[in-house]
Each structure stands twice: as C-alpha cells, then as structure tokens.
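Hi there, hope your week has been kind to you so far. Please have a think about how the structure follows from the sequence. I've dropped the whole record in just underneath, so have a look:

_____
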Amino acid sequence: MVRRTVRMAAGAVLVLGGLVGCGASEGDGGEDPKAGSTAAAGTSAGASPAASQGVSAAGAAKPAGSLGAAGSACPLPVSFDLAADWKPKAVTSQDDEQFGALFKQGGTTLQCEIDAKPAGNIGFLRVWTADLLAIDARAVLEAFVAGEKTTGTPTYTPVRAGALPAVEAAYETRSLDDRKQEHAFAVVTPGGKAVVLQLSGLDTQEHDAMLPVYRLVQQSLKPQS
C-alpha cells in the first residue's frame, strides 16, 4: 500500500491529459500528451488494480461496453470492447497552430485517449490513426515507435487483432529516471485505414496491471464498415 501511495503521488506531478477533448487555446498550457498522468484522484483506497478494472481471477478483462462506432465517444476506423470504468475522450486539438504537433507521431495522429485512472491505474490506452492509407501494418508501427524515446531494441511480433492480421511492438521507454515497459499494435483495415493502439502507464507495474485490458481491446477489435 505504501508503494502504491508513492506511485500515485508521483503520477500527480506528471502531465498528460490536459489537452484531451479541448483546444490548446482553452487554458491547458500545451502539455505533451505523451507524458505521464495528471493525477491519481478517483482511485478507491485499498482496491486492487485487477478488481477495479473488471479483471477476472484468471487475468482476463471483462468487456463492459465498446468504442469506435459512430456515435461513440471516439468514432474510429475500428471498434473494440472496453473494460469497466475506462473513460475515453476524443482528442480535438490536432489542428491547433501552436500545439498540434504534440498529437502527431510517425505519420499518425492521436484521435482518442482512454483513461485508466477511474479504473484504478495510472495510464492510458491511446488510439492513433495513420495520416495516409496503408497496406503494411509493420511499416506503420515501426514509424510510430521510431517517434518514441526507446531504450534498447523494440521487438516486433505478428499477432491477430480480432480477425485481422496485425503487428505488435514491445519496447521500453524512460520514465522518472527509470525504464518502463510499453506495448503497441498496428492494424490495417480492409479499406486501407491504419490504426495504432498504444498502452502506456506510469511505470512497468502499472503497465502490467493494465495489460489484460489492452489484450481485450486487441482480441475484440473489428473494422468499421
């Protein structure tokens, strides 16, 4: 519990979600959306990460809604299941003259951030879409990961995202003077729209606690018609 409290306090001093869902001109100061979380408020004292996320005893996340369809919080080229209390917000600052570049990475643009804090963890699932039509998911993912401050060499693995072929990257970045684990996968829809889904937490322990929800997203993913 002491370690949890220390990590939650550390998360409170990191900036991440300030630009989500609003323009940078609305007093948010132009924070980098790839930094850490803004605060740990809303986490229930004593609740385990698995219980608060809706993760079963077997380690599989339970679906409690979906995202990506027209009319959802983030209309996307794909749809997928979400676990309970993960809160999505559309990113609407991509065209801001001063801070729009913060939402671009490796030929993709950030479209949606799904906040894990209400579910008891400090981290996000982020959904990026490629700026151009694509046919090679690995090329899209490699370009995206090249924009990360990685340590060591990323590992790329062919996977499935629902019924679609996909490529996943496992890599490490630096956070709070330490290394932390990251995962991302890329998929190309039959219409040529490429999507990157990235899991990023405050540290590796937070990342590992959120990994079942990332897997739920990956396994349930479907292209939008």
